[in-house]
Design goal:
The complex is a heterodimer of chains A (337) and B (383).
Chain A: E1 18-28, E2 34-45, E3 50-54, H1 61-68, E4 76-81, E5 84-85, H2 91-98, E6 101-104, H3 118-129, H4 134-147, H5 152-155, H6 165-177, E7 183-187, H7 195-212, E8 215-220, H8 223-227, E9 232-237, E10 240-245, H9 247-252, H10 257-265, H11 305-309, E11 315-318, E12 321-323
Parallel strand pairs in A: 3-8, 3-9, 6-7, 7-8
Antiparallel strand pairs in A: 1-2, 1-4, 4-5, 9-10, 10-12, 11-12
Helix pairs in contact in A: 3-4, 3-6, 4-6, 6-7
Chain B: E1 3-14, E2 17-29, E3 34-38, H1 45-52, E4 61-69, E5 72-73, H2 79-82, E6 90-93, H3 97-100, H4 107-119, H5 123-136, H6 142-146, H7 155-167, E7 173-177, H8 185-202, E8 205-210, H9 213-217, E9 222-227, E10 230-236, H10 237-242, H11 247-254, H12 295-299, E11 305-306, E12 313-314, H13 323-334, H14 338-350, H15 376-382
Helix pairs in contact in B: 4-5, 5-7, 7-8, 13-14
The chains are: A alpha/beta (337), B alpha/beta (383).
Chain lengths: 337, 383
């Protein structure tokens, strides 16, 4: 897996909200070396859709999300929001467009300013944009706090430390949606939370999506978490795309060996199901010096010489299921390896 | 029995008052067995393991009950006496490997330290043993890693190092407190495999503390479910999953995300939050969040009692699957009690093929937090 290409992008007629093509994010390292965090990633997001972006730590999923926001600007590729390419905009114009995208982070407590009151935190986006007047802003903040399940009269005057992790994540969500963005990017929004609270936050995100007509990018390391919220799941490895498809399809019949390994790693709450042994050995290689050809080959049970010499391109193996692998588990060549 | 905990309670003095973090907990761990302790944040599972290991702060804490480990009552031992128990007999792995490792000491020395100190090994013997330990926790290139500092390792690798340190003196009992919570699922699977193998190879008992029933399902012999400082259900693992009686255990299981979840289905949640332990109520502590709740639950506290199946105990007046429980649930649904609505809808959705029973109007009210305003707001959210 771990290849390039854009075969999985929907035709332009589909009027995608966000279209990311050949995105590259590189960071300078010591001795003139380069960290290749994201290398040629493409994906698109349709109105009202949620795309789940899944991969292990260091696969570049957060870097990709930040590059979409132009935080910092990507090293290459295009990020088209509606009909404007964000990578081509200068500072002020970018600032204006950027309010249409919002980000929610993994650690809900450190992403809120501890010195400010909840009502101030949530009002800030409105103040920056000078939306309405003080009274209408207050009303809007109250409305959005209620929408995320917090009582504005009780929660508003408090500061973040007075809330639990799940409640802080609700506050972050309120802050993100108050300016009515079109795209909401959630970077591991539930991985720091208890399973019982995770479920509450996932439900809330679905509610917010319906209420504000959001399109969402949902980043996670766990395929089970994105299952119920995503319309499309994209699996990433070491800065590249492995597999894209509807969750029903790729969970039932994963084509990429990496997707398969990620699925096997999910703990099943049923003692009758024996856990798979070592679904994936070793760690992710360094993005300073990624393997040649397919970047997953060093950990892949199906790797062959071709995987080292030739980078797989994203292609459709079954209707609506796209994979970047020379020897996929599904499709005509499934038995080749 | 290797470890017998009897009526253990731990109370803290906090600004909000006295907090009973562990409340009358009793259980046993047999030699070489794996026991899972499951509960949400604040359920007292970490304080429980620290109370057993004598790792509580000296001031402002009161502990009662007995912790009998291999015949000795640990609660009577001084810190000096405990040093012969810590590391050698029982040991602990924590959630965050970066904060439990010393950042300015090489990995190797952090392992050999206890070998030299506890077992009196020579430096060279300790080095060889440390490399064997790094191999045992499946760290590739152990000789190289031996010389590195913690920051040069990945999160999963660091956690393996802390496990190597914990097992260095071959303890009889290892507490692993959320050992995989900060890690990727793939690394989580590797770490859990390492722990399972070590347990088998070294005949070491393991207490695995976690908030995720999925983690303990395939890897423990017994599970204790904790809520608000108490054990509310305890059973052999297979029995717990097959015969779950306590509504809290059921709710916890339902909230685990699964690979076969339906797209865009509302997730089952546990409404509200754990109770304030500084202001305990007379009734069952789970009652305010329970779908099976009745009057009696609010005034009287259920005790942990035998279910009839060997080793299975639970604390509930109206358990899941009982006639009384079902009629409570039906009544609560009628009264639009949010947790009850949730359980009913969830069941209906999971059995889609079956014809639907009585129609129930579902609001999003069950998603509210306790600081939330009365029900109007969440209706708006779902509108």
């Amino acid at each position: 897996m771990a290849g390039s290409g854009g075969a999985h992008l929907r035709p332009n007629e589909a009027a995608s909200v966000l279209r990311v093509e050949d995105l590259r994010v590189e960071f300078p390292a010591r001795d003139g070396r380069v960290v290749q965090a994201v290398s040629g990633l493409s994906f698109d997001l349709l109105p009202g859709e949620t795309v789940g972006l899944v991969g292990e730590s260091g696969c570049g999923k957060s870097s990709a999300a930040r590059a979409v926001m132009q935080l910092p600007r990507p090293s290459g590729g295009s990020v088209i929001l509606g009909d404007v390419d964000l990578t081509q905009l200068d500072g002020e114009r970018l600032r204006r467009v950027r309010s249409r995208m919002q980000l929610i982070f993994q650690d809900p407590i450190s992403s809120l300013n501890p010195r400010r009151r909840v009502s101030e935190i949530v009002a800030e986006p409105l103040e920056i944009w000078g939306t309405g007047n003080a009274a209408s802003r207050r009303e809007q903040v109250e409305e959005v706090l209620e929408a995320v399940g917090l009582d504005p009269a009780i929660a508003g005057p408090k500061r973040p430390h007075e809330f639990s992790g799940g409640q802080c994540q609700r506050i972050s969500i309120a802050r993100a949606v108050v300016g009515e963005p079109t795209v909401l990017i959630c970077d591991e929004p539930v991985s720091a939370l208890d399973v019982s609270v995770q479920a509450q936050i996932l439900n809330l995100l679905e509610d917010m999506k319906a209420r504000f007509g959001l399109s969402m990018i949902f980043i996670a390391h766990d395929l089970a978490v994105v299952r119920s919220v995503s319309d499309r799941v994209a699996v990433m490895y070491l800065g590249k795309l492995c597999e894209v498809g509807a969750p029903e399809r790729i969970y039932a019949r994963p084509a990429h060996p990496y997707t398969d390994a990620l699925l096997r790693a999910v703990p099943i709450p049923d003692p009758a199901v024996r856990p798979h042994r070592e679904p994936l050995a070793g760690d992710v290689p360094s993005p300073l010096d990624p393997p040649s050809g397919c970047r997953f080959r060093t950990r892949c049970p199906r790797a062959a010489p071709r995987c080292a010499s030739e980078e797989p391109q994203v292609r459709e193996v079954e209707a609506g299921q796209f994979v970047a692998c020379h020897y996929p588990l599904v499709g005509a060549q499934a038995t080749a390896a | 029995m290797l470890l017998t905990v009897s009526r253990l309670s731990t109370t803290f003095d906090s600004a909000a008052g006295r907090v009973r973090a562990v409340d009358d907990v009793s259980f046993t761990v047999g030699a070489g067995r794996a026991v899972g302790v499951v509960g949400e944040s604040g359920s007292g599972k970490t304080v429980l393991s620290r109370s057993i290991m004598n790792l509580l702060p000296r001031r402002g804490v009161e502990r009662s009950g007995e912790v009998r480990f291999d015949g000795r009552d640990l609660t009577t031992l001084s810190t000096k006496e405990m040093t012969s128990v810590w590391g050698r007999r029982m040991s602990m792995v924590f959630q965050d490997p970066m904060t439990s490792l010393n950042p300015v000491v090489r990995v190797g020395r952090q392992i050999t330290e206890s070998l030299v100190h506890h077992l009196g090994m020579s430096k060279t013997d300790a080095r060889d043993e440390a490399i064997r330990l790094l191999e045992a926790v499946r760290i590739p290139e152990p000789e190289r890693r031996f010389r590195e500092y913690p920051h040069q390792l990945s999160g999963g690798m660091r956690q393996r190092v802390t496990i190597a340190i914990a097992i260095a003196c071959s303890p009889d009992l290892l507490f692993a407190d959320e050992p995989t919570t900060a890690l990727d699922v793939t690394v989580q699977a590797q770490i859990l495999d390492v722990l399972s193998d070590l347990r088998t190879d070294r005949e070491m008992a393991l207490v695995l503390v976690t908030h995720d029933l999925g983690v303990v399902a395939g890897r423990t012999d017994e599970i204790a479910v904790m809520y608000a400082g108490e054990i509310v259900e305890m059973a052999p693992t297979a029995v717990l999953f097959a015969e779950m009686r306590m509504p809290y255990s059921e709710a916890l299981l339902r909230s685990v995300p699964r690979l076969d979840d339906q797209p865009h289905r509302r997730r089952a949640t546990i409404p509200g939050r754990p109770p304030n332990l500084a202001a305990p109520t007379p009734g069952c502590r789970f009652a305010p969040r329970c779908a099976y709740v009745a009057e009696r639950c609010l005034s009287e506290r259920p005790r942990l009692e035998e279910s009839g199946i060997p080793g299975h105990r639970f604390a509930c007046f109206f358990p899941v699957g009982s006639t009384d429980g079902q009629s409570n649930l039906a009544r609560n649904v009628k009264a639009e009690w949010a947790p009850a609505l949730e359980i009913i809808t969830h069941r209906r959705e999971t059995r889609r093929s079956e014809p639907a029973g009585t129609p129930v109007q579902v609001s999003a009210a069950h998603d509210r937090d306790p600081v939330a305003s009365p029900s109007t707001d969440s209706r708006k959210a779902s509108a």
